[in-house]
């Protein structure tokens, strides 16, 4: 599994540094560059070809939405998450028309960014595993799949549980008779904390049972067993 290559485009150097530190805390994410102007962002996006760009809207030398439109017009393979203080509905509409993967309002918090990038990584995993599309696969990949209305019969997921990542965990479960959070995190390319959150959710739904086991040094460890 290849890491997500990420470019930060943010004119405020302090905010860019916060984003950089957040990214360093995430697994399977590689920071390939930081741009503080749109001109620099254009060059870096063209040369580095990142998988994902964290893009602000307001810059001294222009508007980040213009860069988004340029990327789409050039058929760039880079996806974009907008991180902005812009709360205008028209800005959101323009961003959605430009095909942003996510839209995050400032002030940025780690958990929201981590959730967005985890969902992006799961999205890439789903795409790479597909050989042919059916309607169900398309529905699972579209953003609306994780926020379907209650009357569609799809289960509403709690905050912090992403549908695509949950499907990935479910796909991994049959590979072992029992799991711990560290092993699951290694398999899904996420932190132990993230893996534990999904495993505990499946305990709550009755899909897993949990028990405490003691290792060779006597340290208790919670283990998860798929139910027959």
From TrEMBL:
GO molecular function, one term: DNA binding
Pfam families to which the protein is assigned, alphabetical: HTH_64, Response_reg
Main location: cytoplasm
UniProt xrefs under InterPro entries: 2C-system_Tx_regulators (IPR051271), CheY-like_superfamily (IPR011006), DpiA-like_HTH (IPR048714), Sig_transdc_resp-reg_cit/mal (IPR024187), Sig_transdc_resp-reg_receiver (IPR001789)
Keyword Lipid metabolism: no
Response regulatory domain boundaries: 5-121
Protein name, UniProt field: Transcriptional regulatory protein
Native source organism of the sequence: Marinobacter vinifirmus
């Amino acid at each position: 599994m290849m890491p997500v290559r990420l470019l930060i485009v943010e004119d405020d150097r302090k905010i860019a540094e916060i984003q950089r530190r957040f990214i360093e805390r995430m697994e399977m994410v590689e920071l390939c560059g930081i741009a503080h102007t749109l001109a620099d962002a254009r060059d870096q996006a063209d040369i580095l070809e990142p998988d994902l760009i964290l893009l602000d809207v307001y810059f001294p030398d222009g508007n980040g939405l213009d860069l988004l439109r340029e990327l789409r017009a050039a058929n760039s393979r880079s996806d974009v998450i907008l991180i902005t203080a812009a709360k205008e509905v028209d800005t959101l509409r323009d961003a959605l028309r430009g095909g942003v993967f996510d839209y995050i309002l400032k002030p940025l918090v780690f958990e929201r960014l981590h959730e967005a990038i985890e969902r992006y990584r799961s999205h890439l995993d789903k795409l790479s595993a597909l050989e042919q599309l059916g309607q169900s696969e398309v529905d699972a990949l579209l953003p609306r799949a994780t926020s379907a209305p209650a009357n569609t019969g799809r289960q509403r997921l709690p905050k912090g549980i992403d549908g695509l990542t949950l499907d990935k965990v479910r796909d991994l479960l049959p590979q072992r008779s029992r799991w711990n959070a560290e092993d699951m995190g290694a398999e899904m390319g996420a932190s132990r904390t993230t893996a534990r959150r999904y495993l505990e959710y499946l305990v709550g739904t009755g899909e897993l049972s949990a028990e405490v086991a003691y290792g060779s040094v006597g340290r208790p460890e919670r283990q998860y067993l798929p139910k027959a």
